[in-house]
Amino acid sequence: MAERARPAGATDDVDAVTRAVLTASRLLVAVSARSLAAAEDRVTLPQFRMLVVLSTHGAVNLVTAADLLGVNPSTAMRMIDRLIAADLVSRGVNPANRRETVLQLTPDGQRIVEDVTARRRDEIAAIVARMIPGQREALVDALTAFAEAGGEPAAPGRGPDLYPLGWVDPTASSA
Amino acid sequence: MAERARPAGATDDVDAVTRAVLTASRLLVAVSARSLAAAEDRVTLPQFRMLVVLSTHGAVNLVTAADLLGVNPSTAMRMIDRLIAADLVSRGVNPANRRETVLQLTPDGQRIVEDVTARRRDEIAAIVARMIPGQREALVDALTAFAEAGGEPAAPGRGPDLYPLGWVDPTASSA
DNA sequence: CCTCATCGTTTGCATGATGCAAAATAGGTC
DNA sequence: GACCTATTTTGCATCATGCAAACGATGAGG
Q1: This prediction's pTM
Q2: The domain at B29-149 falls in which architecture?
Q3: B92 to chain A, closest Cα gap in Å
Q4: Which of its termini does chain A have fewer beta carbons within 10 Å around, N or C?
Q5: What is the 3-state secondary structure (H, E, C) of chain B?
Q6: Digits of tens for pLDDT over chain B (175 positions)?
Q7: In the structure, how far is the CA atom of residue B138 from the C1' atom of nucleotide D16, in angstroms?
């Protein structure tokens, strides 16, 4: 819609950028999928997402974890059961409020998240390293402008950089 | 790994770009998630992925669809059953080879894919439209260089532009 | 023609993810 | 102590998933 409603000049402009964004998007998804692949024989994708949530938000109770994940508490409940059985998550009782549980990653669970995260960072860094320095600077500026236009907080070094991690791409398989 | 093994100068450079890429990545996932939301009360996410496959690859048989989706034929089988029940996909018999089926989108199925695709394009176009023209050009160049460094084919106008469409973001919900 | 290996589809079985609704449990109020 | 609320847990139903086996159609040799 947005592009169709304009004279040809501005249209082609926005359209070209959109196409470039979509292509880059495809690459990013492919990178993430590869990073994830390593962990997929230990946990399912939803389980990994739960690990990410616990990794970024530390000790939380069940409803909070469910909210952060955007799923029903009952779903989170059974997922946690399985993760505990796999020794990736621990469940304790909040001494201040005995009706709440306290969920936390075990060292094993922490390590899985770190491994995938590191792998993804490395893959992106490797791609970036193949660009010439001038392109790198330009990319930072361009992406920063894009993220700002899209209203995405620039995500400063907030810990171990966990972001859009844990997706599935429908078309990546067809590539 | 890749960054840790270098002196500080080059490291910070690559690191800054990596961070920018990850931020942009998060935005792109958020955009896709929003585009998908509209369709999620009609089909599940795996079902939508199947629709995308059928939309891009036209009439295919079951094993092909399963391969494109990266799932077991039995999984694809039952998914197709449900999509047929919802009148989003049709199943016929290949007259040339009666042991093969021919799967195709119904008009309804086609429309769902088109709606989500259009919504996503529009959202990205809207973001791009908020950037100043100079930034837009720079973004195209930068992303093109990035995609090339990552070995992603620049995806020319190959039809209705279907790409990384249909993911799930573990951290998007926590934003 | 009949038989057999093969390919594509389908079904059986088991596990995980998911949501809604209801039960059980713990905390706080009057 | 009765009552309301928040949290966890369980019951039930549906979808997604893979592996293995059964079924059905093709095509090649005999």
Answers
A1: 0.84
A2: Orthogonal Bundle (1.10)
A3: 23
A4: N
A5: CCCCCCCHHHHHHHHHHHHHHHHHHHHHHHHHHHHHHCCCCCCCHHHHHHHHHHHHHCCECHHHHHHHHCCCHHHHHHHHHHHHHCCCEEEEECCCCCCCEEEEECHHHHHHHHHHHHHHHHHHHHHHHCCCHHHHHHHHHHHHHHHHHCCCCCCCCCCCCCCCCCCCCCCHHHC
A6: 444 454 545 556 788 888 898 888 888 888 888 888 889 889 999 999 999 999 999 899 999 999 999 999 999 999 999 999 999 999 999 888 889 999 999 999 999 999 999 998 899 999 999 999 899 999 999 999 999 999 866 554 333 333 344 554 444 333 3
A7: 42
